[in-house]
Amino acid sequence: MSKSGESARLLLDQLADERSRRVVLVSHCLLNENTRYAGGATRPGAVTEVVDELITARTGIHQLPCPEQLAWGGVLKRHSLRLYHSKGGPLYAVRGALLSAFIMWTKVIYRRLARRVARDVADYHRAGIAVAGIVGIGASPSCGVTTTLDMRASWRWWPHARRPLSPETS
């Protein structure tokens, strides 16, 4: 452990308070369903079962950033919505190129967010606060913990794919 991390823990010990020194990372939309894709919200606000359990366990809650909101164009995911009902319109002819650009943009944003979360976890660790777990969304394209969107399979599904994804783009 670094000298500054040790100092921070000593300070926390000397200035003892009620904090549990435990935190769980929680997917953004579990605390705010308003950020879910249109038609996907299952609650008017937070998923109370998750929140109540963490509060009962006296565990801090760290809300993860919403990757889809930040990469896909805000709460309405306007970047992805542009292609809905586009058949016959000017975007329809270039949808393959748009999808490629969209996937590359998404990867850039997701990597940036992953680094941010890694820094947050390291900060908790240095402060002597245990990251006790992560709560994600099963089968979510971006917030799954053990399963996420399979870009290679998604690309094969796209009927106008001109090339398979390389290992660097999956």
- Write down the overall geometry: elongated
Helix content: 40-55%
What is the beta-strand fraction?
5-15%
Order of helices and strands: HEHHEHHHEH
Helix count from the secondary structure assignment: 7
The biggest sheet, with number of strands, parallel, antiparallel or mixed sense and barrel status, is: 3 strands, parallel
Q: Calculate the terminal CA-CA distance, rounded to whole Å.
A: 35 Å
- Which class best fits the helix and strand makeup? mainly alpha
Look at the structure and give the mean pLDDT: 79
Keywords: Membrane, Transmembrane, Transmembrane helix
Transmembrane segments: 92-110
Can you describe this structure?
Strands 2-1-3 form a three-stranded parallel sheet, with helices on both faces. The chain is mainly alpha-helical and 170 residues long. The protein has seven helices and three strands. The chain has one domain. The C terminus is likely disordered. The longest helix has 32 residues.
